[in-house]
Design the sequence.
C-alpha cells in the first residue's frame, strides 16, 4: 500500500511541475485585478474631488446656504454669509428688521434667478411673504480646483450710498435714530434759493450740510417740527422749518407786502411803496426798480380777496418765506368791468440792519 | 502523434481560457467603474451633478435605463420635478399682425445664422425676418407607424423649402423609432393632421397673421386661435415677453431645438448640438437664457436629442448626435424659399 502511494506521488510530481505556468498566470491575473482596483479607486477619488469642485462652482451652492440660514431665522449668520457690514446708520438690528419685514414668517423661500448684465455676476431674488431680497453673486475666477470658480454672495440692500442732508442751522437732525453732530457736517454751506438774489450772499441765512454714508437703504431722517423732503435723484434730503405758523405781526407783514406788490403791478401803488419794503442790495430790486407798469385795464378799484398764507418757512430766526394766494379783483363801474386775477406769490424776508426787509418775490 | 495533438489542443484551450479570463477582468473592471462612478455621481458631493446626470439620462431613449440602476423611481421623480421649467399655464395673448414684415427694416437680412455658444454647448440660431415663410412640414398627410417618417433634408426638398429643423415629438421606443407617428397635435395649412380636439398639450404654432403662439391648449383651442401651422412639444420657454421660471438645473444637458419670435415678427430657430465632445448640450434654462438674449417674446422648446438638426441650403449646419446620421422624423419647421 505504501509503495503504491509513493508511486502515485512520483507520478503526480511532474504534473505539479506542469501547473507552474498556471500559477504565474493567476499571479499576473491577480496583479491585473489589483492594478484595476487601484486605477478605479484613484479614478473615483479624482471624480469625487472633481464633483466636489463642480458643486462649489454653482452660485446656488453659496446662495442656498444663506437662504437656509434665513429660513432657519439665523440672521446673524446670514448677515455674515451675505457680506453685510454693520455701519453706524445700518446696524445689525436694522438688517434683521429689514429682512424679517420682507420675508415674514416664511420657512420655504423661493429663489428666482434674474437677468444680469455683468458677465461675472449672477442675480437672484429670494421671494418672501411681503417682498423679495435681491442677491448679487460675483464670480471669483479660478479659485477652485479643476479651473472652477467660486462665488461671493452679497445682499443688495438697495440704493443706500451717500446722502446729503440740508437743514437750517438750529434744527437738530437725526438719521436712522442717530443725531448728526459736527462730525457729519461738511465745510460747505448752502443758501436757501430765495436768498440767492442777494448781491452779498454772505448776508444770507446759511443752511448746514450734513453727509452720511454707510447706508444700505434710503435714510430715515427725522427733525422736530420740520418738513422733510427726499430728493431721490440727487440723494439729498432737504429740511425746512415750515411746520411753524408765523406770529400775527409777521403774517400781516407778509400779506401786506404781497398786496402792495400786486397793487404796484396793477398801477394802484407806486414804486416807492414797494421800495419801502424792499432791501435794495438784491438782484430782484435791480430788476424791479426800473419796471414800468403798462396795466391796460383802466379801473376804479382793486382789492385782494380770499387771502391765504401757507408754507411759512424759517431759515433762521429772522429769515423766512411764505406763499400767499388771493383773488385780485379789479372793478370799473363804467362798462361794468369786474375782473378776477388768481395770484400766487412766494415772498422772502430777512433782517438787515435790525429791520426785517423784503428780499425776493417769486410769482408762482 | 495523438498525444501531441491533445497537448496542442490543451494549449489552445488554455490560451482561450486565459484570454477569456483577462477580458472578463477588463469587462468587470469597466462595469465596476461605471457603476461606482454612477454611485459617486448620485450619492457623492454634488447634488447638481446628480440632477444633471439623472435629467440628461431620463430625457434620452437609451440612457434612461441607467439612473434606475442606482436610484429608486421615486427619487428620480423628485429630481426630475425639482429641475424643470415651471409651467404657469400662461398662453400667448394678443393679435399681432405680421403679414407684411418682409417690407419693413430693409437692413435686416432675410435669413441670418448666428453661432450660439455657452459653457456646455454650441449651436446655431437662424433668424428669419419674415414669419410667413416659416411653416410646418410633415412626412405625410396621413401619419403611420408602418410608413415611417422622412429625413429632414428630404422633407425640405419635397416641400420646396430652403431651410429646416426638426419639430414635434414622435413615438420613439428605445431610441430606434422610425419617426412615423407624431405625438400630440400637428396642424398644417389650418388642418388638424394629428392629435385630438380635447386633450390639452403644449403647442407652438403660427396663426394666420404669422404670430407665434405658445402654451398649453387643446386641439380645438388651437384651431379656434386660427393656428395655420403648429406642433406639440414643450416646455414653453418665454410667453408674452416673460421667461418662464426655471427650478434647479432646468433639465439635463442634451441636444436641443427651439423656436421663438421677436416683437418685430422675426422668427428665431435654435438648434444646440449635444452628446458630443465639442458640445455636451444645453438645459432648458440655457434655452430660456438664449431666447431672452435674442429678445424673444414667445418661445418654446421643440423635440431634442438625436433628432436635433438644422439644414440650410442643402447643408447640415449642426452636428447630429445620432451615430447613424440624421433621423427620420414626422414633422419639421421649414423655411420656404
Sequence:
Amino acid at each position: 500500500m505504501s509503495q503504491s502511494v509513493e508511486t502515485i506521488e512520483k507520478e503526480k510530481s511532474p504534473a505539479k511541475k506542469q501547473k507552474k505556468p498556471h500559477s504565474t498566470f493567476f499571479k499576473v491575473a491577480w496583479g491585473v485585478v489589483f492594478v484595476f482596483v487601484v486605477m478605479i479607486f484613484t479614478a473615483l477619488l479624482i471624480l469625487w474631488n472633481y464633483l466636489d469642485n463642480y458643486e462649489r462652482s454653482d452660485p446656488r451652492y453659496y446662495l442656498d446656504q444663506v437662504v437656509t440660514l434665513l429660513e432657519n431665522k439665523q440672521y446673524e449668520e446670514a448677515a455674515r454669509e451675505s457680506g453685510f457690514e454693520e455701519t453706524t446708520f445700518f446696524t445689525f438690528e436694522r438688517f434683521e428688521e429689514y429682512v424679517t419685514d420682507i420675508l415674514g414668517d416664511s420657512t420655504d423661500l423661493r429663489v428666482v434667478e434674474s437677468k444680469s448684465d455683468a458677465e461675472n455676476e449672477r442675480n437672484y431674488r429670494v421671494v418672501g411673504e411681503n417682498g423679495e431680497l435681491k442677491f448679487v453673486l460675483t464670480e471669483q475666477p479660478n479659485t477652485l480646483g479643476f479651473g472652477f470658480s467660486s462665488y461671493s454672495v452679497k445682499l443688495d440692500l438697495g440704493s443706500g450710498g451717500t446722502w446729503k442732508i440740508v437743514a437750517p442751522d438750529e434744527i437738530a437732525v437725526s438719521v436712522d435714530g442717530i443725531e448728526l453732530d459736527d462730525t457729519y457736517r461738511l465745510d460747505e454751506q448752502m443758501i436757501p434759493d430765495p436768498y440767492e438774489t442777494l448781491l452779498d450772499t454772505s448776508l444770507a441765512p446759511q443752511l448746514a450740510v450734513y453727509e452720511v454714508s454707510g447706508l444700505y437703504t434710503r435714510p430715515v431722517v427725522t427733525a422736530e417740527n420740520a418738513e422733510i423732503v427726499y430728493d431721490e435723484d440727487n440723494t439729498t434730503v432737504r429740511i425746512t422749518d415750515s411746520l411753524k405758523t408765523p406770529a400775527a405781526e409777521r403774517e400781516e407783514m407778509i400779506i401786506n407786502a404781497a398786496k402792495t406788490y400786486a397793487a404796484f403791478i396793477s398801477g394802484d401803488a407806486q414804486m416807492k411803496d414797494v421800495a419801502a419794503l424792499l432791501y435794495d442790495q438784491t438782484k430782484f430790486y435791480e430788476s424791479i426798480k426800473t419796471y414800468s407798469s403798462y396795466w391796460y385795464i383802466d379801473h376804479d378799484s382793486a382789492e385782494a380777496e380770499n387771502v391765504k398764507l401757507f408754507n411759512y418757512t424759517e431759515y433762521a430766526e429772522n429769515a423766512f418765506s411764505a406763499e400767499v394766494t388771493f383773488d385780485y379783483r379789479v372793478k370799473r363801474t363804467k362798462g361794468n368791468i369786474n375782473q378776477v386775477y388768481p395770484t400766487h406769490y412766494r415772498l422772502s424776508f430777512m433782517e438787515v440792519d435790525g429791520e426785517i426787509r423784503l428780499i425776493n418775490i417769486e410769482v408762482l | 502523434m495523438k498525444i501531441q495533438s491533445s497537448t496542442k489542443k490543451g494549449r489552445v484551450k488554455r490560451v482561450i481560457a486565459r484570454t477569456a479570463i483577462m477580458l472578463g477582468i477588463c469587462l468587470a473592471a469597466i462595469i465596476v467603474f461605471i457603476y461606482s462612478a454612477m454611485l459617486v455621481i448620485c450619492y457623492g458631493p454634488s447634488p447638481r451633478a446628480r440632477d444633471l446626470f439623472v435629467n440628461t439620462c431620463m430625457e434620452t431613449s437609451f440612457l434612461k435605463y441607467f439612473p434606475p440602476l442606482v436610484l429608486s423611481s421615486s427619487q428620480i421623480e423628485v429630481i426630475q420635478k425639482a429641475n424643470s421649467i415651471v409651467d404657469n399655464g400662461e398662453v400667448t395673448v394678443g393679435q399681432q399682425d405680421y403679414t407684411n414684415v418682409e417690407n419693413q427694416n430693409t437692413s435686416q437680412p432675410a435669413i441670418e445664422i448666428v453661432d450660439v455658444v455657452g459653457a456646455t454647448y454650441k449651436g446655431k440660431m437662424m433668424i428669419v425676418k419674415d414669419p410667413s415663410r416659416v411653416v410646418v412640414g410633415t412626412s405625410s398627410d396621413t401619419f403611420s407607424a408602418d410608413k415611417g417618417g422622412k429625413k429632414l433634408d428630404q422633407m425640405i426638398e419635397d416641400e420646396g423649402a430652403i431651410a429646416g429643423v426638426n419639430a414635434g415629438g414622435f413615438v420613439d421606443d428605445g431610441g430606434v423609432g422610425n419617426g412615423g407617428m407624431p405625438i400630440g397635435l400637428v396642424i398644417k395649412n389650418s388642418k388638424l393632421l394629428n392629435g385630438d380636439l380635447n386633450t390639452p398639450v403644449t403647442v407652438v404654432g403660427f396663426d394666420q397673421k404669422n404670430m407665434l403662439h405658445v402654451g398649453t391648449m387643446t386641439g380645438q383651442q388651437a384651431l379656434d386661435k386660427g393656428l395655420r401651422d403648429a406642433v406639440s412639444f414643450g416646455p414653453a420657454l418665454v410667453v408674452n415677453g416673460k421667461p418662464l421660471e426655471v427650478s434647479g438645473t432646468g433639465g439635463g444637458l442634451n441636444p436641443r431645438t427651439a423656436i421663438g419670435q421677436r416683437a418685430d415678427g422675426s422668427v428665431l430657430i435654435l438648434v444646440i448640438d449635444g452628446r458630443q465632445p465639442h458640445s455636451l448640450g444645453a438645459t432648458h434654462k440655457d434655452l430660456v437664457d438664449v431666447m431672452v438674449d435674442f429678445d424673444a417674446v414667445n418661445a418654446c422648446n421643440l423635440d431634442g436629442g438625436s433628432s436635433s438638426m438644422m439644414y440650410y441650403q442643402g447643408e447640415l449646419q449642426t452636428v447630429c448626435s445620432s451615430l447613424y446620421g440624421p433621423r427620420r422624423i414626422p414633422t419639421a419647421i421649414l423655411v420656404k424659399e
